[in-house]
Specification:
It is a single chain. The chain has 349 residues and is an all-alpha fold. The chain has a domain of 143 residues. It is 55% helix and 2% strand. The protein contains 19 helices and 4 strands. The strands form 2 sheets. It has a two-stranded antiparallel sheet with strand order 1-4. The longest helix has 27 residues. It is flat.
């Protein structure tokens, strides 16, 4: 019974946190506006690892919208003592998260290099990157557990795509969703070419936009180019570039530079066209990869800049604890904004 009571406290507190949070009463610019401006449709960073952990508990135990179901709660795994203590420490009896206490706890963890009672832009980016990496690793581990049927710690193609038989692979169909198309992705991620994927290789497959694998980068750009290449000649002419790629690049550059004028479409096309044939090949598009296909890790830089611009009242490029406390809801807007949630979206799939 103690197990059920403990988990009920956690689950109920999290749902009340989601329901009663007063974010709509604050006039800050929410992160979804940033997402829409930059066209980012994947998972947005979560600032507070405690919130991320709460989300995982509700997801893993099937409590999203079913926290009233005590049968589910009673069969949930028991939290350890430190997790129980966290719930009691940071949640009120009404189920509201004490943002002041959370920020007081997090500030010294972010203020690391140097420890000077300020959070710099680089420190904020480093913190958000840590959270993003943790989230990518967590999701990859969950998928690994699901696909690794023989329990050997690696993923074979047959485990990843069991619906395809040997005849399908022999046909090697390369249209979107066919056996050859999936096999190419798998082989690109298989960096050591041993026929199976390790944890990191599988993470590259699941989250290609966050990979450092050059073959995966080339594949992402090739897939993107297919949708932009209207005359199907395998390259982008200026009109195709201008209508399909330039606006995304321009939005990110303007955000990076604080609204400074971005290069014109003509200027950027000429810069990318290394062989001066008035066409862009996949290799020539590489400098645009993180503008055309931003992943969670690259997006953390933009999100850090957004948080800094919202909370840095004196515009000195760093945050004090008081500034963060004065803008506490900005740092928790990823939880509060429930009306326009972004989908878990992988454009290449």
């Amino acid at each position: 019974m103690a197990k059920a009571v403990v988990y009920a406290l956690l689950a109920t507190a999290f749902i009340l946190f989601m329901v009663f949070c007063p974010s709509k009463q604050h006039g800050h610019h929410d992160h979804l506006g940033l997402n829409r401006r930059l066209g980012f449709r994947d998972h947005v960073p979560v600032f507070d690892p405690f919130v991320a952990k709460m989300e995982r508990y509700t997801e893993e135990n099937g409590l999203g919208g079913q926290t009233h179901n005590l049968a589910l709660v009673e069969h949930s795994p028991m939290m350890d003592a430190s997790e129980v203590e966290e719930v009691h420490e940071y949640f009120s009896d009404e189920g509201k998260l004490n943002l002041t206490l959370r920020l007081l706890s997090l500030f010294p963890l972010i203020d690391q290099a140097p420890k000077d009672s300020y959070i710099s832009s680089n420190e904020l980016k480093h913190w958000l990157t840590q959270q993003a990496v943790e989230r990518l690793n967590y999701r990859t581990q969950k998928e690994m557990e699901s696909y690794d049927k023989d329990g050997d710690g690696t993923i074979s193609f047959s485990e990843y795509q069991p619906k395809f038989c040997s005849q399908d692979l022999e046909k090697n169909g390369m249209e979107h969703g066919e056996a050859g198309w999936w096999k190419q992705q798998f082989d690109n991620a298989d960096a050591d070419k041993n026929g199976t994927l390790t944890f990191n290789e599988f993470k590259d497959l699941l989250h290609p936009e966050d990979s450092n694998n050059s073959e995966i980068h080339k594949w992402l750009l090739a897939e993107k180019m297919k949708r932009m290449d209207q005359d199907k000649d395998g390259k982008l002419n200026f009109m195709e570039f201008s209508h399909n790629a330039y606006d995304s690049f321009k939005s990110y550059v303007e955000f990076e530079t604080g609204g400074a004028k971005a290069p014109t479409a003509e200027e950027k096309f000429a810069e990318l066209d290394l062989n001066k044939d008035n066409l862009l090949e996949v290799e020539e598009l590489k400098p645009l990869l993180h503008y055309l296909h931003p992943g969670e890790l690259s997006y953390t830089n933009y999100y850090a800049s957004f948080l800094m611009s919202e909370a840095d009242d004196n515009k000195d490029g760093k945050l004090t604890l008081d500034e963060m406390l004065d803008h506490d809801y900005v740092f928790y807007s990823t939880v509060y904004d429930t009306g326009d949630n972004e989908e878990d979206y992988h454009d290449e799939f």
